[in-house]
Amino acid sequence: MLNSAQQHPYFRKEILLTTKHNKTPLIAPAFHNQLEIKVVEHFADTDVLGTFSGEIERTLPAGQSAIAKAKLGLQETGRTLGMASEGTIGADAGIGFLNSDVEILALVDLEKGIEILERYRSFDITAAKSIASPGQNLEEFFRLADFPNHRLIVRPSKGVSTKVLKGLATADAVFEAVNICSTESDDALAIVESDLRAMHSPSRQKNIAQAASLLAARVLSQCPDCKSPGWGKVDVEKGLNCSDCDTPSEFAVKRDIYGCVSCPHREPGEQLAKFASPAQCVICNP
Ligand SMILES: [Zn+2]
Ligand SMILES: [Zn+2]
Predict the structure, then answer these.
(1) Per 3-state DSSP, what percentage of the chain is helix, strand, and coil (rounded to 5)?
(2) Ligand 2 centroid – CA 4 distance (Å)
(3) Of the residues 110, 260, 279, 280, which has the fewest C-beta atoms closer than 10 A?
(4) How far is the CA of 253 from the centre of ligand 1 (A)?
(5) 96 C-alpha to center of ligand 1: Å?
(6) Where is each DUF6671 domain found (predicted)?
(7) Which whole number is the average pLDDT over 38-49?
(8) ipTM of the complex
């Protein structure tokens, strides 16, 4: 008898991963474990869609950018099933004083006409930045930036120069880069910062692997109605009464809503709470 994985439309299929930065070892295991899917890497210069270090600004929202990258690879290879990822690292959108890494992984199936996305948000990301002058002691910064475990980028601090030295792995290379970049900078200083490209950032690699696990699980999950892959949480239902004073709170999450990426089918999840906490109540916590 076939088990449920063997009946899944993607069982033992190949998925093209379009990437510039060798992300296959981070993403492939989750898909192999779930459905014996083989992830095939396709190198594409995805920099046209915006670069990580900011030389070319990303014009699309992260999710759309991941989908566009996946489609670019499919176009170039004539395949129909592909993936790509997009990371956003910086001051967190919700908690501004902390850095976060939001990794989005998108799957595009041109045959079925579906797109499946998952995102993983982590505060465990090493992202450090400093300004240095030639000959400056960088020991403290190296410790903060977990260098050389995480590699570094150096560029001029001010002016028109577009020089960027990336993937620096030794202290000598960093000092040399500071010398070069400071002479090209209007204020004779250089910016030294984490190289956040996936292959140079172990903390980011972990987050990409987490996003891959989430997407693999979602791809595995099929719509109860049309059997399309990609069934999962699409929304939440809000609205509970305060446990202390019974006032309705419009912010308290009552349950998750699950949905399909292919058909309009939706189902409410189990109720997560009976009451809103007084902390969410406009009367108890004005
Ligand atoms: Zn209350
Ligand atoms: Zn469906």
Answers:
(1) 25, 35, 40
(2) 17
(3) 279
(4) 15
(5) 28
(6) 69-267
(7) 84
(8) 0.88
